[in-house]
Amino acid sequence: MPDGPVRRLRLTRYDALGLLCVLAFAASYLGLRRGARPTSATEAKAQLLDPSAEIQEGQEWLGLYLGSARAGYIHLDKARLDDGWRYRVETRFRLLGAAGGEVALIVDARLDAALALAAFDFDVDAGPARFQGRGQVAGTRLTLAVDTGGETVERTLDLPRPPVLRSTLAPLLAGLDRTPGTRTSLQLFDPLTQRDEAVDIEVVGPDTLVVLGEEVAVTHIRQHSRGLALDAWINARGELLRQELGLGLVAVRETEEEARFGLIQARTGRAGADLRALTAIPVAGLPADLRRREVLRLRLRGPAGLAIDDQRQRLADGVLTITRERPGPGLPLADVAADDPDRAAEPLVQADHPRIQAVARRIAGDATDTRAVAERVRRFVHEHVDDEVVAGVPSALEVLENGRGDCNEHAVLFAALARAAGVPTRIETGLVYLDGRFAWHAWNSVRVTDGWLTVDATWDQSPVDVGHLRLATGGLDAQADLLRLMGQLQIEVAP
What are the DSSP calls for 271-318, one per residue? Predict the structure, then answer.
């Protein structure tokens, strides 16, 4: 750890990871379309009460809530095409105490006449951060083009079966066998995390729900994904009337006026959802920071099955012991295999891009081992990236170009540059302690002779202090998995 002044970060500077986890999981469930013809309350109620099981053209509005607070709105617009259907889906919301700004997530999908996914566009707009792209489907092959950092990055995925988007699930849900206990497995593709995953749909049984002031017959279903069991209530057409997304995030069918009012309230400050208050974990009995501490023992209570042991932390009988590392020498770059998976480029960690590689070579200079290179990359990222809340999707190219971001952006750029310089590098996500509480954070680790060494370019630490509690390793898909821990994990100081 450097001996010079330590940058004091406000907690909001790393709480944005909590928002990103929510976005990564919830984004493709929900929807909105700007500029569509307004839907009256009478039209919305008539559409809701229509007993038809056929897909209907038109719009569905939902209010988005976090806990009891209004957080925004959701809107789905369905239009019949000559050769199929168009589903345009956007979520727009504002979470106080996190990024403090408005976030829009858009998925615009085209389905063929058989309701199979043919193509889609996606866009995440979070103020200074923008992440967008396109997908084309041919059988089980998905071709993606992602625009980031002024570049278009293309990749092709061969999937085990034709992909399905969560935002276009309604036609499939309409055809479910609704016998209680029936389970159906679907393979869904998430444009935000760019991951194909299995989701198990369980039919809980028939139910009733009050929607738009009317009691309607619904089917209660439960979606099992990423260790979470999420409840939803659908009508005969498979339309979502209520969807629970974890961490108290709920979408409820409303009129357009009701749904829009939720975002207006959040914008004006008269209402809003404080994600920081829901995700932060206060802990009594510790000093303001832990930079000088060698060992920290914490009692964890929450979801079972945490697999978080590594070179610096051990979990036994609910007590986590974190020991500050004693770093050994770096691994000679000449001994690192060219095909090491921890050196590989990823969609948002573009270690193979010429611009990233050129900067990495300049930073690494004459360094010959992984630790020496990591030290130089850490200093560069810490100085190059202005500490600024960005609630979007981190991309190394964009961070290099713009030089702005929070912990996610620091960690992604560090990973891309270090890998490009020949250093096996991982992204670590979890919690970090400061001023009486733990909040969500991201950092890195690099391979050295005796294992892995932690590096935090945001806080300019290597090794990191014992207040860093790793819960997952990996990029955006791993961060989305943290959602099952948010609001569930409790931490106390252990003797």
Answer: S-EEHHHHH-EE--SS-S--TT-SEEEEEEESSS------SSEEEETT
CA distance 63 to 267: 15
Q: How many CB atoms lie within 10 A of CB 315?
A: 15
Digit-coded pLDDT (tens) for 247-264: 677 889 998 888 887 565
Residue 114 region, left (φ>0) first, then alpha (ψ -120 to 50), else beta?
alpha
pTM of the model: 0.79
CA distances from 351 to 342, 382, 396, 416, 419 (A): 11, 18, 8, 4, 6
Beta bridge partners of 216: 209
Give yes or no: residues 260 and 294 share one domain.
no
Final residue of a structural domain among 276, 294, 329: 276
Residue finishing a domain among 276, 297, 317: 276
Residue 366 lies in a domain: yes
Q: How many CA atoms lie less than 13 Å away from 61 in the CB half-sphere?
A: 24
CB neighbours (10 Å) of residue 42?
9
Q: What is the mean pLDDT of the chain?
A: 83
In sequence order, what are the residues at sequence separation of 6 or more whose Cβ sits closer than 8 angstroms to the Cβ of residue 338? none
Q: Tell whether 217 and 318 lie within a shared domain.
A: no
Helices (H), 337-434: 354-364, 370-384, 396-402, 407-420
Give CA–CA dist 192/228, Å, rounded: 18
- Cβ contacts of 46 within 8 Å, gap of 6 or more: none
Backbone angle region of 227, left / alpha / beta, with phi > 0 → left and psi within -120 to 50 → alpha:
left
Average pLDDT over residues 195-209: 90
pLDDT > 90? residue 147:
no
Do residues 202 and 289 share a domain? no
Digit-coded pLDDT (tens) for 68-113? 777 788 888 999 999 999 999 888 877 554 444 677 888 899 999 9
d(CA 48, CA 61): 11
Structure tokens at 207: 């139910």
Q: CB of 295 within 8 A of CB of 322?
A: yes
Secondary structure E strands in 37-139? 58-66, 69-81, 84-96, 102-112, 117-126, 129-138
Residue 2 inside a domain? The answer is: no
